[in-house]
Amino acid sequence: MDKISLTNNLQNNITILSNDFIDNYMHKADGEYVKIYLLILRLSGSNLPIRVDELADTLELTRKDILRALNYWEKVGLLKLNDHSSEKASTEASSQPEETPGSYTAPQVPEKVNRSAVDMEKSIKNTDLEQTIYMAETYLGRPLSTSELNSFCYINDDLHFSSDLLEYLIEYCITRGKKSIRYIESVAINWFQAGIDTVKKAKEQTALYTQNVFPIMKAFGIAGRNPGPAELDYIKKWNALGFETDIIVEACNRTLLATHQASFPYANRILEDWKKSGVRNTTDIRSLDKNFHAATQAANQPKQTGQPSAAKATTSNPFHNFEQRSYNYDDLESRLLDKTRR
Question: What is the pLDDT of residues 177-189, one digit of tens each?
């Protein structure tokens, strides 16, 4: 009999999925959670690093979506976050500023349910949402799936987005290169929590983000999340001071060098001092730095002793402390000649 050799194909080109997952877990989980789990399984099987930001970029989801999925799978017992991952999640949660009396409190996000085909038809047919969905399909160049239609019904019915606001939301996400309906839904939830319920408010928010928010968060080394209400208040205050983005980013850079953390209050003190000093551009900042360094060097420089001058040395010599006499040499010479003739 000829020798039979088996080839192991269970390498990087195959990912094994347990039937137990399909039978007992898959049908209970959100579709995006399943996609995240499969991608993690793929990376783990190939000994590739698993990073939250890379998962979000690959699946066109937000960082919060990834963290919610990780927490879900850990809760049902299929994943266990290591200490580093838990620390990152807890760090992000703790980095959110505490609410102060009188500040805005985000409303509770309504729970999303899987609507039946009949319920979705009632929400869509002969309504403004039907036209909005047609617009979305035109932008995407394909019909929407059942789960995607359910997302639009959720935004329309539960988050109470008007047709104008929903259309602007779709345009905003697509122009940023984000065509995932899940991403659009995540932005809708963020707007709902921020109290954005009109197109005007949405445009103000997106204009603010385009102008300053993303560069400032990047300068502080904060990625994968939106700024909290207190952080946004600081950014709006800095905009009101009339500073360009490059000046605010410079203050953020100096804050990190001084405190080794993203301290909005510390950066605020820097910008307020610059405002009092009349800073209008980065050239003014360099001038302030130059003057500060010069003043510091002058204050710390020891007094120069040096060598005393000849006149000062003569005065300080104890052998010359008597009063010096002055002579009229012409008169002395005349008197000497007269005495000689006699």
Answer: 788 898 899 889 9
